[in-house]
């Protein structure tokens, strides 16, 4: 999955990629740093690399995760800027995008 820009709007593009670290889909790729519920440590090292490259990273909190493995591993690596409940992640992303892009206009609720 990737967030793509179409004119002045953003959309989510879903595609089938290659396995990364034996996982498909994998989150160990150059992408926006949001790690949601999941098993194991997939994504933790990618999040750490993103944070070291000055990316803003978010992990889903334990109370709203079905399986807290992936977010927990990233948190333990200190790879996460914010730990948020699932319902707070979309608005946090929109606020962050709005601050960084003068042409970004978040959708109205």
Keywords:
109 residues; alpha/beta; Rossmann fold; three-stranded parallel sheet; two-stranded antiparallel sheet; 3 helices; globular; disordered C terminus
Fold and architecture overview:
This protein has 109 residues and is of the alpha/beta class. The chain has a domain at 27-100: 3-Layer(aba) Sandwich (Rossmann fold), CATH 3.40.50. Helices cover 27% and strands 18% of the residues. The protein has a three-stranded parallel β-sheet with strand order 3-4-5, with helices on one face. Strands 1-2 form a two-stranded antiparallel ribbon. Helix 1 packs parallel to helix 2. The protein starts with a strand and ends in a 9-residue tail after the last helix. Mean pLDDT is 82; it is low at 102-109.
CATH fold node name of the domain at 27-100: Rossmann fold
Counted beta strands: 5
Pick out the low-confidence regions: 102-109
Helix content: 25-40%
CATH superfamily descriptor of the domain at 27-100: Methylesterase CheB, C-terminal domain
Quaternary form: single chain
Radius of gyration: 14 Å
Residue-averaged pLDDT: 82
- Please trace the helix and strand order, writing H or E for each element: EEEHEHEH
Describe the main β-sheet briefly.
3 strands, parallel
What is the strand and helix layout of this fold?
Blueprint: E1 2-6, E2 9-13, E3 33-35, H1 44-52, E4 57-60, H2 69-76, E5 82-84, H3 89-100
Parallel strand pairs: 3-4, 4-5
Antiparallel strand pairs: 1-2
Helix pairs in contact: 1-2
In short:
The chain is of the alpha/beta class and 109 residues long. The chain has helices at 44-52, 69-76, 89-100, and strands at residues 2-6, 9-13, 33-35, 57-60, 82-84. Helix 1 (44-52) packs parallel to helix 2 (69-76).
């Amino acid at each position: 999955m990737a967030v793509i820009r179409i004119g002045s709007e953003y959309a989510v593009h879903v595609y089938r990629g290659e396995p990364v670290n034996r996982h498909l889909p994998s989150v160990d790729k150059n992408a926006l740093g949001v790690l949601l519920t999941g098993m194991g440590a997939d994504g933790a090292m990618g999040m750490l690399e993103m944070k070291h490259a000055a990316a803003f990273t978010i992990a889903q909190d334990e109370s709203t995760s079905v399986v807290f493995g992936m977010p927990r591993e990233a948190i333990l690596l200190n790879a996460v800027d914010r730990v948020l409940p699932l319902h707070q992640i979309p608005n946090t992303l929109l606020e962050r995008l709005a601050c960084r892009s003068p042409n970004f206009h978040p959708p109205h609720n």
